[in-house]
Task: inverse folding
């Protein structure tokens, strides 16, 4: 009825004459809805794609992602419908790829760009740095375990080259492979200060003697580009929905 | 919940609306899924349908519905066709800084509609 139409936004839709315009309007509304829910003002401007090799490796390494042989992504629960409809907490996994520029002081330096812009009120549950260690020719044949110590420092770009120790980990290497380094605290602090750039310096004690090379930002080796995985969730507790 | 298939006489139902991200040029930043089910609710909600199905099991709703069927409406007469069941959607996409983000967004997909 007319009175229902005037008070109910969803009543009286679907007039055949307006179907074309309605589709366009709905399309725009849906686009805006998706951006709002992802807390973005506009769609990201993608001018240069991430090297596919780096992306494939990162997704392959994560429990959430599988990559099919044809290179397409097969993500469980990403057919548009999540498996658990009861999930109410908004969680995010952010994979950030390492970069290097003129500001980074040495070959062992790299940085990641992560911001809370567009991801407001994210609380970092866990952040791990992924580094690939390559056994150089002549080492693998021996089949020996090599023990090295990896130290991750952070520094402020443009500062007086002061490096602050972040973490230290003993790594045992039998073959070339990926290793993870927890950096949750540093990422939390960086985001809390409103920063967006995490500068790191990687030192490997014993790598040279063991004929081992940590792969940093190397354009010739995109498959082994370091990456940072941040697991986060919305920090704003008052909007959390609970099921009773 | 009814599906809008042209046979439900304009009653409150769920209209399926799928958007393929390739068609709107969003596949360069959204890695997965390939599209979005932007389903919505439409149709009329006669008085006797109010409260169905979301709260039909409530004793109070049953009593109120009896009043409505007899044309004696306590409180508001009008009811609205709204989503009564929503599901979470997981998305994998690039952000402004070329990071890959996987996000579980609750209440993104309309699964059922009803009068409330």
Result:
């Amino acid at each position: 009825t007319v009175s229902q139409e005037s008070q109910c936004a969803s009543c009286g839709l679907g007039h055949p004459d307006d179907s074309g315009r309605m589709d366009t309007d709905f399309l725009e509304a849906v686009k805006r809805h998706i951006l709002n829910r992802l807390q973005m003002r506009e769609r990201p401007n993608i001018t240069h794609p991430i090297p596919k090799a780096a992306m494939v490796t990162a997704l392959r390494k994560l429990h959430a992602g599988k990559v099919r042989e044809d290179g397409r992504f097969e993500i469980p629960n990403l057919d548009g419908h999540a498996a658990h409809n009861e999930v109410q907490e908004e969680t995010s996994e952010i994979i950030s790829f390492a970069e290097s520029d003129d500001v980074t002081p040495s070959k062992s330096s790299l940085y990641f760009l992560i911001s809370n812009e567009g991801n407001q009120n994210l609380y970092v549950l866990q952040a791990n740095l992924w580094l690939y260690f390559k056994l150089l020719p002549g080492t693998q044949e021996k089949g020996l375990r090599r023990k090295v110590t990896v130290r991750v420092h952070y520094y402020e770009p443009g500062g007086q080259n002061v490096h602050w120790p972040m973490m230290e980990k003993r790594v045992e290497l039998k073959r070339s492979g990926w290793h993870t380094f927890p950096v949750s605290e540093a990422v939390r602090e960086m985001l809390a200060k409103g920063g967006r750039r995490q500068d790191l310096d990687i030192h490997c004690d014993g790598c040279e003697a063991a004929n081992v090379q940590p792969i940093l930002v190397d354009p010739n080796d995109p498959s082994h580009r370091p990456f940072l995985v941040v697991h986060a969730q919305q920090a704003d507790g008052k909007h959390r929905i609970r099921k009773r | 919940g009814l599906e809008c298939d042209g046979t439900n006489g304009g009653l409150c139902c769920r209209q399926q609306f799928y958007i393929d991200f390739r068609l709107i040029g969003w596949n360069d930043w959204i890695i997965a899924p390939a599209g979005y089910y932007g389903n919505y609710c439409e149709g009329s909600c006669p008085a006797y349908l109010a409260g169905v199905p979301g709260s039909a099991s409530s004793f109070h709703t049953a009593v109120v519905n009896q009043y409505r069927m007899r044309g004696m409406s306590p409180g508001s007469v009008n009811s609205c066709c709204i989503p009564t069941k929503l599901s979470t959607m997981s998305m994998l996409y690039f952000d402004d800084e070329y990071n890959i983000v996987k996000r579980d967004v609750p209440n993104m997909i309309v699964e059922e509609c009803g009068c409330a």
